Amino acid sequence: MDIENVLNDIVDEVIRRLNNKLKQAIVVFTGGALGFEDALEQLKMMKQEGWSFKILLTRSAEHVFLPGSIEKDLGTNEVFYERELQGLAEFYKDTSLLIIPTLTLNSASKIALGIVDSAVTNLVSHYITTGTPIVAADDACDLKNPIRVNYKMHKSPKAYLDMNSRYLDQLRAYGISLVRAKDIAEASKSVTFQFNEKKEIQQPEKNSVIYYKDRILSRITVFEAKQAHSDLIVSKNTIITPLAREAAIEFGVTIHQEK
């Protein structure tokens, strides 16, 4: 084995260890039940890919999920209960991501309004202000989720639906990546930094542009443009979040905003 191969092996091992160190997330379960099974499968998948979790169950989550079920399903003892907490310092260190797999309508509304009166709203406020990525599943808090038809929970008046949509837009404007529970793993990859383990990286030439006209441009949309080897043209009415601008620089995606 020559010196170059030895050095390459050492570099690969260093990168692997750095990536494992970066794959540490705080996971907060609130009391939302919609999407829970999908979320659990996604977290299991992430664990298989080397992620480690520190898990917090809020008071409402304890009423929804069976005692010990999270520990058993995810194979971890790093599970904390809000009723037992003396403080949140334990959840402010050694993490690169906050995941909320079952965001409730109540928590989503409070976060949108800047209300900080519980463990989950305190954690979200902390991670927003420190610029740490947040991924939240909106299955339970999106009143337009088609699955609500199955539970006869789809008859909200337009004014209530509009209010809910505004709150979810506000969360996106804060930089929170709202996804369906089945997409948690992919979204987590897209918003966290990982060292590339490939020795040779070839950047394909961009051959297209994506026209984007929704209200909020988020980091995850910029990542999707990168995956498609495209730049972005956004509507003049689109709000470009700070995280989206940072992602554009990080991923080499050019954002053109119409005048």
Secondary-structure class: alpha/beta
Separation of the first and last Cα atoms? 59 Å
Q: What characterizes the major β-sheet?
A: 6 strands, parallel
**SSE order, as H and E?**
HEHEHHEEHHEHEHEEHEEHE
Oligomer: single chain
Overall helicity: 40-55%
Low-confidence stretches: 194-203
Figure out the total of helices.
10
Shape descriptor: globular
Sheet with most strands: strand arrangement: 3-2-1-4-5-6
Alpha-carbon Rg, integer: 20 Å
Average pLDDT score:
84
Query: Approximately what portion of the residues adopt beta-strand conformation?
Result: 15-25%
Count of strand segments:
11
Could you write a compact summary of the structure shown?
The protein is α/β, with parallel strands linked by helices and 259 residues long. The protein has helices at 3-22, 36-48, 59-64, 69-74, 105-113, 119-130, 158-173, 184-191, 219-227, 242-251, and strands at 24-29, 52-57, 79-81, 97-100, 134-137, 177-179, 208-212, 216-217, 230-234, 239-240, 255-257. 42% of the residues lie in helices and 17% in strands.
Would you write up a description of this structure?
The chain is an alpha/beta fold. Helices cover 42% and strands 17% of the residues. It is built from 10 helices and 11 strands. The protein has helices at residues 3-22, 36-48, 59-64, 69-74, 105-113, 119-130, 158-173, 184-191, 219-227, 242-251; strands at 24-29, 52-57, 79-81, 97-100, 134-137, 177-179, 208-212, 216-217, 230-234, 239-240, 255-257. The chain has a 6-stranded parallel β-sheet, with helices on both faces. Strand 1, helix 2 and strand 2 form a beta-alpha-beta unit.
